[in-house]
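Dear colleague,

Thank you for sharing your sequence with our group. We've completed the structure prediction you requested, and as agreed, I am returning the results in plain text so they can be pasted directly into your records. Please verify that the sequence below matches your submission; if there's any discrepancy, let me know and we will rerun it promptly.
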Amino acid sequence: MTPRIKAFRFITRCLANDNWPESIEALRAEIRSAQLSWEAVVSLANAQLITPALWIALEKKGLTEVLPDELCTYLGEIHRLNAERNKHLQVQLLEAVKQLNSINVSPILLKGAMHLVNDIYSDPGVRIMTDIDLLVPREDIDRCMESLRELQYEPVEDIHNDYHEEHHHCAPLHKPGAFGALEIHRKIMESPYEDILPTELAMTEAKPIEFHELSMKVLSPTHRVLHNILHSQLVDQNYHTGTFSLRSLYETVTEATTCHEIVDWSTIHLMMEQSGRSKVLRTYLYQTGRLLDFALPAGIPKTPCYRFYYWRCVAGLGWHACERIGRRVNRYSADNICKIYGCNDGWIPINLARLKQVKRRVLVYIDDVKQRLHWGDQPR
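Please find the predicted structure tokens below.
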């Protein structure tokens, strides 16, 4: 077992819902054994964006007292700094919402923005955020963008027209001295994944909330969990590359176990199944059960297929060669092929497009070899 895999297993056992005294004692013994690579633990926690969550989990299980002093100081400081940053982001969010309310727009808070105004995590410093995502009605986009200019927000220069009219969000907005960018969304997510969770449906079922006397909305718990899974597994391509996304897994488990409303797993499964992606959901949920001790919803079996996929992810985590193979395999995933060649998701069109992609990669490789040979013939 590589140091990286050992570190991963230690982190997931800390984050898991398993609070039995025997499990906590086993973690305490592992910390004292000096067999863990703390460098690997910190590196992995940082890469997975769950360092503050790891610190809180260690605190709740009473394990911080047995950590090395330097590690304890480091983790505690990362959590403190993230909590401070999130407070600034909350101020930034409320300022933007107030501005949008002034033009009679009540934005829907997406992803981390929602966690700035609720207590699902019970600690303001647990979740690391990079920006603030707000979904508004498409017909109000221009008014919202113009109104936010009054707060000194300006869009990034869109040289390559990356944020065209059909892009799911406008160009990110930046403000001098702000702690994060604002992203105003036209759609909840990019195509083709919006077909699974349509924007109109998400907006219709969004829940209105008031915070500091401001009007805003959040996705329903079921749509929040589905949006998280779609973003992690398909948009970020973790499913096709065989990569664990601990922050996403931890967020799903937290949402499902602490939210006051019930997450409707049967609806999530139906929406994924209708798009032919039920396997994505099932492998993801198998990971939550295996890694974070989450009670799997009915109908999620522990089949050899899901076990194989889990060990594929473990191999990619522990050995860089396996990780590289996973990323190369992703080049030929149905989603990537459809995106490159604009084909539909039928079996024949996808496989014809895959052959084109193989031919394209081979020609690039041959051209590269020719250039290398040519350079080798040059006089020194």
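Summary note from our side: The chain has a mean pLDDT of 89.

Kind regards,
the structure core
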